[in-house]
Design brief:
Blueprint lengths: L7 H6 L8 H10 L3 E2 L5 E3 L2 H8 L4 E2 L2 H4 L20 H10 L15 H13 L7 E2 H6 L1 H11 L6 H14 L9 H25 L7 H6 L10 H31 L2 H9 L4 H11 L6 E5 L3 E3 L2 E3 L5 E3 L1 H4 L34 H19 L3 E2 L1 E2 L16 E3 L6 E2 L6
Bound molecules: protoporphyrin IX containing FE (HEM).
The site of protoporphyrin IX containing FE has 24 residues, from helix 12 and helix 16.
Length: about 425
């Protein structure tokens, strides 16, 4: 329905469509490579266009290029997720030093044992005689515990940072036509409090380093490689939030996808070597991050349509992942899919920083849960979803580890 294409963003973000936005993504790809929206933004849903735009230096990730901000609204101190090169590159490189190669090539791998131990503890605590909530009892505590351990944040402060994180994620969501001023103010406040909290923790480690990333940042001996305090606050906040909000959804989407396909549970149990590819397929088929926003720094043409400088452009990664021009039989979940160059971790200069960690967490979690999934049943299908359209995943996933489905409305492969 090409005439309705201007309302696609409103329909995609409509909470009623959260359980199954994929027919809308098919409509988006059908409507054209660049689809203008009633609110002045544009949507891009085709794989090859999204990939090209993610690699195009004329497309800015900086919020200050995206909208017409009033001076009082200007987002202060963006993290490197929302900065362009060269500043993005400088901060990403400094943030990578205590996390990954070339300076810390073993950091992520060294967490494998601990990730397995936390997973086993969580599994051992799951009751067998009543439904469990895969989100609250399993998929949320695992990455939160890991990111706390990695950064050096006390796990017992969880209620504090869960509230900040929820507020920040809500403020960063896309809601066309909605009055976002209040959510924006709440996000600013939560961001400020979280930065202060993390900076305070980092200060406590100055001169007394522990084996965590906050210690590494604050005790960096070379001043040219040290994050300034404001940079440290925003970077630690970004790592903390990006480090768990998405992984929760990947694990939960994984359990949901597998429970809808008992034959795939049996297949993976028989062929555990397929698990890493199954995780890649989940990142394609049910990605935690559905869209990202960019804005052209100059007027420029994409597939015959000129996008004016400053336009808010939503690159719908989850739609690109289902594009039949890039993936054979894209609406089928195929854990053995070859050449799976999905957009689940983005692409280009902002390609996910934490992907190696997220992969280990998802493989460990799903691998350990698999034996329990054979007899497991969904209590509710579709489950209740989180409000967020950008970071999409169930808010709860009630599962009976043994028993029959109580309420199933029959969602299958589209
Ligand atoms: C399944 C889990 C995850 C998914 C699906 C995911 C997805 C993504 C995506 C799509 C982007 C690109 C954003 C853009 O282009 O605007 C991104 C960037 C990023 N991710 Fe992840 N992520 C995950 C886990 C993690 C973890 C565990 C960490 C940290 C330990 C992390 C840290 C980051 C950071 C810092 C960026 C910004 C990179 C940059 O701007 O250069 N992510 N992630």
């Amino acid at each position: 329905m090409a005439s309705d294409s201007g309302t696609l963003l409103a329909r995609i973000t409509d909470y009623a469509n959260r359980p199954d936005p994929y027919p809308l993504y098919a409509e988006l790809r059908e409507a054209g490579p660049v689809v203008p929206q009633e609110d002045g933004s544009c949507l891009v849903g085709a794989y090859h266009q999204i990939a090209a735009l993610l690699h195009d230096p004329r497309m800015s990730a900086d919020e200050r290029s995206v909208r017409t901000w009033s001076p009082s609204e200007q987002p202060r101190e963006p993290s490197f997720l929302r900065l362009d090169d060269p500043e993005h590159h400088r901060l990403r490189t400094l943030a990578m030093r205590p996390f990954g190669p070339p300076h810390s090539p073993r950091r992520v791998d060294s967490l494998r044992g601990e990730i397995a131990r936390i997973t086993e503890e969580l599994l051992a605590a799951l009751p067998a005689d009543r439904p469990v909530d895969i989100v609250d009892d399993f998929a949320y505590p695992l990455p939160v515990t890991v990111i706390c351990r990695l950064l050096g944040v006390p796990r017992e402060d969880e209620p504090l940072f869960r509230a900040w994180s929820d507020t920040l994620v809500a403020a960063a969501d896309v809601r066309p036509g909605a009055d976002t001023a209040e959510a924006g103010r709440a996000g600013e406040q939560a961001g400020r409090e979280m930065r202060e909290y993390l900076l305070d923790l980092a200060e406590q480690r100055r001169g007394r380093p522990a084996d965590d990333m906050l210690s590494a940042f604050v005790n960096e001996p070379d001043p040219s490689l040290r994050l300034a305090p404001a940079e440290l606050g925003v970077t630690a906040t970004l790592l903390f939030i990006a480090g768990h909000e998405t992984t929760v959804n990947l694990i939960t989407n994984g359990v949901l996808t597998l429970l809808r396909r008992p034959e795939q549970v049996e297949r993976l149990r028989g062929e555990p070597g397929l698990l890493p590819r199954a995780v890649e397929e989940l990142l394609r088929y049910e990605p935690p991050v559905h869209m990202r926003e960019r804005a052209p720094l100059v007027d420029f043409e994409v597939a015959g349509t000129t996008i004016p400088k400053g336009t808010s452009v939503f690159l719908v990664l989850a739609s690109g992942n289902r594009d039949p021009r890039a993936f054979r039989d894209p609406d089928r979940f195929d854990p053995a899919r070859p050449d799976n160059e999905h957009l689940g971790f983005g692409s280009g200069i902002h390609l996910c920083y934490g992907a190696p960690l997220a992969r280990i967490e998802a493989e460990t979690a799903l691998g350990a849960l698999l034996p329990r999934l054979t007899a497991a049943r969904l209590v509710e299908d579709p489950p209740p979803y989180r409000r967020n359209a950008m970071l999409r995943g169930p808010r709860h996933l009630p599962v009976r580890l043994g028993g029959r489905p109580d309420r199933v409305s029959g969602l299958t492969d589209s």
